Description:
The complex is a heterodimer.
Chain A: E1 4-8, E2 11-12, E3 15-16, H1 18-30, E4 35-42, H2 47-55, E5 60-65, H3 74-88, E6 92-96, H4 99-111, E7 117-120, E8 122-126, E9 129-136, E10 141-147, E11 152-156, E12 173-177, E13 187-192, E14 206-210, H5 221-230, E15 233-236, H6 238-242, E16 263-267, H7 273-279, E17 284-289, E18 302-305, H8 308-322
Parallel strand pairs in A: 1-4, 1-6, 4-5, 5-12, 6-11, 7-11, 14-15, 14-16, 16-17, 17-18
Antiparallel strand pairs in A: 2-3, 8-9, 9-10
Chain B: E1 2-7, E2 9-11, E3 19-20, E4 23-24, E5 31-33, H1 35-51, E6 54-61, H2 66-75, E7 79-84, H3 94-105, E8 112-116, H4 127-135, E9 138-149, E10 152-159, E11 162-169, E12 172-176, H5 188-194, E13 199-202, E14 218-224, E15 233-234, H6 239-253
Parallel strand pairs in B: 1-6, 1-8, 6-7, 7-13, 8-12, 9-12
Antiparallel strand pairs in B: 2-5, 3-4, 9-10, 10-11
Helix pairs in contact in B: 2-5, 3-4
Amino acid sequence: MSDKLLVIGEIRDGVLRNVTFEAIAAAKKIDADGEIVGVVCGDQELEAQAQEMIYYGADRVVTVAHENLKTYTSEGYSQAIMAVIEDESPSGIVMGHTAVGKDLTPKLASKLDSGLISDATDIEVDGEDVTFIRPIYSGKAFEKKVIEDGLTFVTIRPNNIPALDRDDSRNGEVESKDVDVTDLRTVIKDVIRKASDGVDLSEANVIVAGGRGVKSADGFKPLYELADVLGGAVGASRGACDADYCDYSLQIGQTGKVVTPDLYFAVGISGAIQHLAGMSNSKVIVAINKDPEANIFNVADYGIVGDLFEVVPMLIEEVKKLKGINV
Amino acid sequence: MDIYVLLKKTFDTEEKIVVSNGRIEDDGAEFIINPYDEYAIEEAINQRDEHGGEVTVVTVGDEESEKQLRTALAMGADKAVLIDTEDDLEDGDQYSTAKILEAFFEDKEPDLILAGNVAIDEASGQVGPRLADRLGISYVTTITALTIEEETAKIDKDVEGDIEKVEVPLPVLVTCQQGLNEPRYPSLPGIMKAKKKPLEELEIDDLDLDEDDVEAKTKTVEVFLPPEKEAGRVLEGELDDQVKELVSLLKDEAKVL
């Protein structure tokens, strides 16, 4: 087939999220010869973001700017993107499986009377047949899914399908489309920033996660420091969240987030099956626990049996040395 | 207020997943209410207790789903509806479920519909937003607080750790995130009462649907388990040497630093 695939870009703090570029790569995988049309929404000039999508592989990009698209709402964004879909009649749509992707895509799928395969981590292509692989039971198992009828509509999990190399010699047309975004019932009154360091758990390459063994909110401080020197994010087990050491938004596990970073530190985490479900597909797992019998050692690539309050500060120093950060 | 909760039964989180013939083996597995749906039930009961009205719990499932519905009734819901698709729908997807629920709600006038933000089995999170779109009402996903003042819902929405303060007029569909409340356990008197509460059983014919109307748009062709992770190396020696060894292993062997 040689069709047209729409990639919905996602902007946060003025820049495209990396998963947008991964979505372009996914679209290329679905149809190597197809035309890839990016779409981005916002309330301001979107030329720079559109160009960036082209550098990462989009053939052309449609931008929709409107004052009602400043903050994402499903009502506003679905109006803008449906208008583009009606113009373009794509054969497929790809977006990141992020908070916005999860919220928006089911609404679009409903309007399009379409199926939707959410949270794909891999794509297999055999001739015309495209199969999507996605985790179920929080990664305890995987399923292969195909589209039976209609649009190839998929969201992809961040960090799993590598983006193409950026090539700023690529050219493509950027078209700005006027859409009247009206009749919004949902109003965002305020946004309280709690996710501090800007590295989102679901997109982080490195995660430092703490469990009950961390003992207190204060005990998480060295974990934040380690995450910081590694350019990663902090996560937690349910035990640590239930004990109020940290916010539920950091929880990793069967309830909570499912993550697949390159490097996962499980610090003072015993390794309950529910927690393992959320992290055991990480590429490399390091366990630090003073209990040598802890279940976490059964899934860890590397383990250190010892007191986390001794090990983590040493680790911070060693990583700083490695990265040439002044100690 | 007319309050509805969408419920799904899922495997107990303690369950190991066994695959045979490319399918998940569910013989003998323990089922529970999807943990995120428990927040929805708890919130529905609290909103009813504050504003009056009735809580109806709805599931699309099989006859075994009655157990989870009875649990919801024992927690304090007033009525339950089981839409049994076992005979009519072999492999439904989120499109199918949303269509069925749309038909169910056709003659209802809900003020508030609550669901879990995701089910821990298939984890697509699609049915809530799809249904809201079908019904032409607003939705807010991953909520961590809900206050209803007159005809307006004031909501805290979790967005990857940030909190959005959202206001939306009723009717609205919300999907519940951890942190919203602490779901109660059913009390013994609650369990006794639940046995007598109304539980309506429907099939898709009763909703004027036939199999073609709800035919899935996507299909699962295979289920498989991830490769068993081998236990790795537990380092030995003095702690500071272990830490040095770990960093060099992460850099040179695993190549992740």
